[in-house]
Amino acid sequence: EVQLVESGGGLVQPGWSPRLSCTATGVTLSNQLVSWVHQAPGKVLEWLASIYRDGTTNYADSVRGRFTISRDNAKNTLYFQSNSLRVEETSMYYCNMGINRGQGTQVTGSS
């Protein structure tokens, strides 16, 4: 059974550079196309970035240059690192692989 478990979310604060993680069991991430997506309150699910089997990455315009998707093959874990997370980017962040998606990790903007 494939399981994806996200973590690393929290309260957005100035200077915080969160790294979201997605640990997989039942599947080898390096053999898959894996993506990060998010869903803000009241909005549709939005694709943010993908990493391909060969390590090639692709980003949505909204996050390109501010986020980095990466993969640790030894840990079978996917990452999503931000160097400039905006407070208004409050949403649930999910890793997505085909029809499989984790439960998400919440990133909340502070006022």
Summarize the structure.
The chain has 111 residues and is mainly β. It has no helices and eleven strands. It is 0% helix and 50% strand.
Explain this structure.
This protein has 111 residues and is mostly beta strands. 0% of the residues lie in helices and 50% in strands. Strands 2, 4, 5, 6, 9, 10 and 11 form a seven-stranded mixed β-sheet that branches. A four-stranded antiparallel β-sheet has the order 1-3-8-7, with no helix packed on it. The relative contact order is 0.32. The model has no long low-confidence stretch (mean pLDDT 92).
Rg, rounded, reads 13 Å
The overall strand count is 11
| Main beta sheet strand tally, sense and closure | 7 strands, mixed
Overall pLDDT, averaged? 92
- Helix percentage: under 10%
Gross morphology:
globular
Q: How many H/I helices?
A: 0
Query: What fraction of the residues are assigned to beta strands by DSSP?
Result: over 45%
Q: Order of helices and strands, N to C?
A: EEEEEEEEEEE
Distance between the termini: 40 Å
Judged by helices, strands and strand pairing, the structural class is mainly beta
Low-confidence stretches: none
Layout of strands and helices, then pairs:
Elements lengths: L2 E5 L2 E3 L6 E7 L8 E6 L6 E6 L5 E3 L7 E6 L4 E6 L8 E7 L2 E2 L3 E5 L2
